[in-house]
Amino acid sequence: MIQRTNIGIFGKVNAGKSTLMNLLTQQVTSIVDPTFGTTTDIKISLMEIHTLGPLKLFDTAGINEKSSLGIKKRNKTIDCLKKCDLVLLVIDPNIDFDENFEIINLSQKYDKSLILIFNNFEGKKNPKSLKEIPYPQISLDLAKSDAKDELINFILKAYKPTKKKKELFPHLKKDDVVFLNIPMDEETPEKRLLRPQSFVQE
C-alpha cells in the first residue's frame, strides 16, 4: 500500500480553498463559485510532488458556513483535519480573521503541521504577516497559474514530514487471531475464494 502524505485545505467560505485545490492539481477538481457553500462535500485528489512524494489532497467546506447543513459539514471538516499531516489554511486578508483561529487551534490540539496562505486576490491589499502566529505564512494570488511553483517551493521549505511508523494491522490488539488467505496456485481466479479458503471465513 502506498503511503501518502495527507494534505488538507481549510478556511472560511469563499477564501479560495477550491481555487488552491485546482491550482495544485492543475485541473478543475473542485467547483469555484462565489455562492456560499459551493463545496458541499470533501473533494479528494491523489497526486505526487517531487521530493514530497505521493499525496492525498482534501478540499473541505468552509468552517464558518451557516447553512442548514453547515454543522454537519463542519464536523466532517474537523474529522478530515484529524487525518491530515499538513494543514493549509487559506485566508482572505480582507475578511475578519477571527474565525480562522478555530483551524489554528485545532491544528495545535492535534499536533498538525500548519501553513497560512493569504489569498491575495487581484485588486486587494497585500496583507502583512501575523507575527503573533508562529506558523509559516505566504501571500499569493491563487487564481494565477504561476503561483503553483512558488507555493510548492514554499511548502517544501516549510514542511518537515515526520516519519511515523505505520502498523500493518492498526486495529488489532494483543493476542488477536489473524487468518491470511493465500491463493492455492497461480491459476486461482482473482478476487475469488476457493472452498478451502472459504472455510476459514465460515
From TrEMBL:
Domain annotation G: ranges: 7-119
GO biological process, one term: tRNA methylation
GO molecular function ontology, one term from the record: GTP binding
GO cellular component: cytoplasm
UniProt-listed Gene3D superfamilies: 3.40.50.11420, P-loop containing nucleotide triphosphate hydrolases
One protein family per Pfam: MMR_HSR1
Protein name: G domain-containing protein
Species for this entry: marine sediment metagenome
